[in-house]
Amino acid sequence: MADVPASRDGLYTIKPITGKGRGFVAASKISKGTRILLEVPLLKTPDSTGDISSAETIVLREVKSLTKDQQRAFFALQNVQGRRCTPVLGIVMTNMLPLGASNSGGLFLEASRINHSCQPNAQHAWNDDLGHMTVHALRDIDADHEITISYISGVSIGYAERQRHLMEAFSFACVCELCSLPLTARNDSDYRLDQVRSIEDAATDLDQVLDHPAKSLSQVHQIFELLEVQGICDISIARACFIAFQIAAMVGDKARAKVFAERAYAARKVLAGDDNPTTIEFKHLAERPVDYHLYGKSMKCYDDSWEAPRGICGEDLENWLWSTDEWSRYSSS
Ligand SMILES: [Zn+2]
Predict the structure, then answer these.
(1) Ligand 1 centre from 167 Cα, in Å?
(2) Which domains does the chain have, with CATH numbers?
(3) Which SMART domains does the entry mention (predicted)?
């Protein structure tokens, strides 16, 4: 296993937050991209798609294997499930954080205490290489401000659906900044989030990308505009950059694919660190976009010497990046 780089001590304190029990509060100003927390799971929970009785058996076995102090800490965690299940399973269901793309989860004594916001200022991410959960600042966080993560991370859903999910899974009504918007502003926000989700669905549809790559990339451009207006700086940015990379790679546009992969890498580094396996993969694709398994799947627009215009930056770079008239010429020839 790789060396485990420590988070910086003294970045946060865990203290009572009005209406939320206890939560994380920044002890001093935390800069964007800072690793706030690095924590090994107290226990891992099985694939959540399995049946509940076998899940309980596995969790009970894990809890029994803990030391007495760890068991005390485990039973001190919140349980919002009430009589819907046993206390042990209730604690796990209330506090579990996902371990990457798998359906398994982990229970963390500290990370589990970070409260939710639908517009969070921090991001949790499982690092499979390190065997630790990481939490990074998504933007600068001032001293004495609460540190929040999203329990429905990176999912663009509207107010009503968010509230329903949070009530069902965690038994609370969210009153975060986004959920407290006046009705008109909330409806506008819901409309943008709905747009983001439907565009993501379309732009990741392989058949559509293969048939209409220029249209797909133009749709991803709209996602960035919507995310900016919405003030979202979470994992959605890295995902949109990667979708743009995939489209450019599939048409064999090495130069644009490289720029999008560099942006996906930079966004991913902020939220998960340079040592996260996905960040490392994005870094490699930024160096060698042609190694992507779908590279040139739609067509090969350019040869391998194709590079972005030298010295281009700012608005000129953006204009070049999103202008894909050349793709149409290649696809119709
Ligand atoms: Zn909320």
Answers:
(1) 11
(2) 12-170 (2.170.270.10), 183-332 (no CATH)
(3) SET
Q: Which residues surround ligand 1, an ion (CB under 5 A)?
A: 118, 174, 176, 179
CB 145 within 8 A of CB 36: no
Q: Give the distance (Å) from ligand 1 centre to CA of residue 177.
A: 7
Structure tokens at 324: 């894909």
b/e for 47-72, b at 16 or more Cβ within 10 A? eeeeeeeebbeebeebbeeeeeeeee
State how far the Cα of 76 lies from the Cα of 72, in Å rounded to an integer: 6
Q: Average pLDDT across each block of 10 residues of the chain; the chain has 333 residues. List them in order.
A: 59 88 92 96 74 75 88 87 82 85 83 93 95 96 96 84 91 93 96 93 87 91 94 92 95 93 97 97 95 85 72 90 80 49
User: Which two tokens mark 132?
Assistant: 């630790």
Instruction: Give the integer Cα–Cα distance in Å for 260 and 252.
Output: 13
